[in-house]
Amino acid sequence: MWNVQINNVTEIDLECTTFCNLKCPECNRTTDKELIDSILNTTHITLEDCKNWFKPSELTRLREIRFCGAIDEALMNPELTAILDFFKDEFNIEFIDIRTNGSVRTPSYWANLVNHLPSDHIIVFGLDGLEDTNHIYRVGSDWKKIMRNAEAFIKAGGTASWQFIEFEHNKHQIDEARQMAKDMGFKEFRVVYSSRPTMSENLDHIRKNDKVSALSNRVPEEKKESVPVEKKKNKGLVVMDKTAELYQNLQQEKKKESHSKEKPKDNVQELVLVNRKKPKKEKTVIRCENQGHGNGNRILVNALAQVTPCCFLNGYFHQPHAYNKDENNKNKPPFTFFNDPILAKFFHSQTDENNELTAISLKHNSLKEILAGKFFAGIQDSWTSKDPIERCLEVCGKGIVDANEYDEFEDVPNTVKVEIAQEKINEKR
Fold it and tell me: N or C end: fewer C-beta atoms under 10 angstroms in the chain?
């Protein structure tokens, strides 16, 4: 059984919408757009959903909500303030954390937002540079609008953090941005480092005329051989579930479709993550960060009404759901690819006759039933097996430690201390 049952949950990550106004190059919305396009900008979690899914009589220890997912901009949910009121009033939530690009809504909305938050809260603005650089990664953002919104929120008494992802094109601005954050009244300035393929490089080679041309980091190499998943281990990013031929056919179909609509190509380099050696899994101990070892007893509920153990596994479940919802795939073989062979095999053992993973869906089961069910239990059971789920191994394997860095502004009262994730070059992310 999964260690964290409903009466143990202290924190929930809520991906409350599939809408976002930006096109950041390394976001799943961009890298996986071909796979998940059918669900993007289609749905919001509603206040009624929250009332049906989250019961104060069951979630007796719930104390924190974080609005942050893989494909969402929380401020685009039209019922966000009503949802905030629900958690604040019904659960007496002690702390709320919202991640945003800050480039939506109006200053008056942001000023009013403070009234819907508990006194202990933080809004993390993703600002990766200054006016002349932020838009390079945050494609489509409006700097002046962000500044007006942040200023209105802070002046109304809101607690704000400036999160700065370091790139080659903006690292010379870190000190200036830190001082600007302090002058504006931000309570915190965070610098985030990342080992993603493009995160430490100039982004000009993947952008042309504001169009992103980076391939997904999860695009596998094509293989001609047919190898059952249980015999195919430690092969980098190449993963086939059921049969390699099925995936091969899907890829060839996509190639034919794209060639028939082919346009003149821009001279832009395409990025493919290089295969890497995997550690010896049988010698690794996994301690789940969301089971009291790091972030408290945390779960994630995504915009598709799915419950997942964490943000690291969440992104895997958008793809098959989106594939099934795409009308163009009705007469095609079921979606079969994950870059984790054990998770792929486990996933298909849990799907129904329509290849839907209803076992973790709040539209089919209660939160209590999902946490007590076979899907969550199976993930945990894999950790003590010879072949644990690869993503769990990468993120929560023994010896993988986050480095943390943040600046508190001592002359500002009630500073909120929040750790920054510094992604190390050890394949954790």
Answer: N
